[in-house]
Design goal:
This protein has three domains: 59 residues; 86 residues, no CATH class; 125 residues, Leucine-rich repeat, LRR (right-handed beta-alpha superhelix) (Alpha-Beta Horseshoe). The chain is elongated and about 55 Å long. With 298 residues, the chain is α/β, with parallel strands linked by helices. It contains ten helices and eight strands. It has an eight-stranded parallel sheet with strand order 1-2-3-4-5-6-7-8. The protein is 39% helix and 10% strand.
Length: 298
């Protein structure tokens, strides 16, 4: 009897070991594939080496979480803000290729807890899943590792988040995407003074964007299909703005021209579907040429 029990225990251990080895090898191949395919930074190589040489740490990540972790890790930016793999994230967001790169709030917190202690300077980039609730979103925004390192947040899929006031806590955010949100006002935006890119597309009830006046570092603003927006006067304060999308902001007309003329760094403006005249845009182009900037129009 004892011999049989011993044999069963040995067999069970061998099966478990085989499964563990298979998981480790599978994940190792995944990391090796990414490492061979892309020119990784020293930080990324370091993370991969930890995962490959420390099975216990490596096994603590699910495949889904590992995908998300890799997405976050490859976005560690150098001092210039230009990372050789930055385009990968742009492609993923643009095409929404796979849910493996869309994380829940709890997964985002887990990733932050694992990454930030090891890489205090990491810039976290999260694309939250559609089922994120208000409570889950609040916990995410309140988490210290998220508050200190979250650089980019995409909420374009989050249909269940009604309370965006928690965004006020994410003062390190540089990029924020809101899509089809039913808000008339944006009081919570004013505290996000580090924002460089803001997407507010298809916010059909949005009437007042006055809080954007505080976003003096903003370089890219997308207001496409904000068809209740009547004034962009607050944008005159955004001297760093380079790209402005006003497509199908149907209530905007030539009264917006003086504001646009006050934007010294404006390089791209998209006005299809507005009532801003060709004459105004031609004049704006001439003004920018006098500033040695070639304005590109749609």
């Amino acid at each position: 009897m004892k011999t049989k029990l011993l044999m069963i225990l040995i067999l069970t251990s061998l099966i478990s070991l085989q499964k563990t080895r298979a998981v480790i090898e599978g994940k190792a191949e995944f990391v090796k594939h990414l490492r061979n395919r892309h020119a990784w930074s020293p930080e990324e190589v370091g993370l991969a080496q930890v995962m490959l040489t420390n099975p216990e740490a490596f096994l603590s990540y699910s495949i889904r979480e590992l995908h998300s972790l890799i997405v976050a890790t490859i976005l560690v930016q150098d001092g210039s803000g230009n990372h050789p793999l930055k385009g990968i994230y742009g492609q993923l967001v643009a095409n929404k290729l796979t849910s493996n790169f869309i994380v829940s709030a709890s997964e985002a917190i887990s990733i932050a807890e694992k990454l930030v202690p090891t890489y205090p300077q990491v810039n976290l980039h999260f694309f939250l899943c559609y089922s994120t609730s208000d409570d889950e979103f609040a916990k995410l925004c309140q988490h210290p590792a998220v508050k200190s390192n979250l650089s980019s947040l995409d909420l374009s899929l989050c249909k269940d988040i009604k309370d965006l006031s928690h965004l006020q806590q994410l003062t390190k955010l540089e990029s924020l995407e809101l899509h089809k949100k039913h808000y008339k006002y944006l009081q919570f935006i004013g505290s996000l003074t580090q924002l460089k890119s803001l997407c507010l597309t298809w916010c059909g009830k949005l009437k007042d964007i006055e809080p954007l006046r505080q976003l003096v570092h903003l370089k890219k603003l997308d207001l496409k299909w904000c068809d209740n927006l009547q004034s962009i006067s607050c944008l005159a304060n955004l001297k760093s703005l380079k790209s402005l999308n006003l497509r199908f902001c149907t209530k905007l007309d030539d009264s917006a021209f003086p504001i646009l003329a006050e934007l010294p760094n404006l390089q791209y403006i998209f006005t299809t579907g507005t009532r801003i005249s060709t004459e105004s845009l031609d004049t704006l182009r001439s003004i920018q040429l006098s500033r040695n900037i070639t304005l590109e129009l749609d």
